[in-house]
């Protein structure tokens, strides 16, 4: 039996770049380049097939916007995966989609291609907020698409964002209620990050007057925790909520520090003790693969100390934290002994709790950066 891994596939294409987004994605790309990119993905997969014995437990097709490309590319790529690798029969296979590029035809093709989970980028259901984000769909379009999704997918996720220009408690509460009315099994709530190189970053001076305050943003977050919890969509990771049995298995691999392979430009892998970072430039990615060289431009050995650090920081992202016995099993040392000074300090500030698990308190969730600092 092969080594069990998660497979991430990066699709770096979007109809139009949003004003806040620093994900590696490109708009206005010609179909011939898209087709070449998908051929390159297959070649990159071939490398893993020829060199390793692996069993795929989860597949995540992310972006960018995978729904922006011809669905035949997605279907053919998944067919390639299924015919060349051992894929677990209950494999969770997710695709990310945007409201403006999804339609019934695509949804049917996805279902036919073994995709059993769909993640839709809603962000907000307020048209003023959507416009300020540079989204090219209206809230009405989102509602139509959500109606379509519930007809075809039992397992789906809705991405929402907080801390947006013009957003306030009332508008966010309305967005949440409308989303909850579709009975989603999974919801992600991301705090807007203003990243260097984006339009939001460059225009921050004029933007800052219409951003909610930090306190308001935190109130939106805790409103989401409460409202989602009230309808059985439980908080299980800093930004993620799910009904029982609908936690995202693929993303749990990251937070549990398990192995995964990422293919495509800018994809990362954590495999056989190393982290690999694929080249971000689209043309470079295609030409590297064409010439038979590796897609990664950086490879980093994760030594035991680094593994411990990553396990702590990623594990603390889960609301239940990480299991102290599992820590000892992995690293042959008791967490509470080795890190007693940090634990005592963080406990004094009310940021962490220790029982069978080590976890953030509510205050610790709001001040997570301070906690990370202790372990970096
Ligand atoms: C890679 S995007 C894919 C989804 C899809 N392309 C879309 O935008 O609808 C994944 C999610 O990351 C979140 N996101 C993107 N940029 C962000 C930012 N700067 N701050 C916070 N969340 C962000 C959005 O919620 C988005 O839906
Ligand atoms: S948020 Fe989604 S649609 Fe917008 S640019 Fe980023 S990946 Fe593309």
From TrEMBL:
Residues 1-234 form the Radical SAM core domain. The keyword S-adenosyl-L-methionine applies. The keyword Iron-sulfur applies. Keywords: 4Fe-4S, Chaperone, Cytoplasm, Heme, Iron, Iron-sulfur, Metal-binding, S-adenosyl-L-methionine. SUPFAM superfamilies: Radical SAM enzymes. Probably acts as a heme chaperone, transferring heme to an unknown acceptor. Binds one molecule of heme per monomer, possibly covalently. Binds 1 [4Fe-4S] cluster. The cluster is coordinated with 3 cysteines and an exchangeable S-adenosyl-L-methionine. This is Heme chaperone HemW. It comes from Caldicellulosiruptor naganoensis. The gene is hemW.
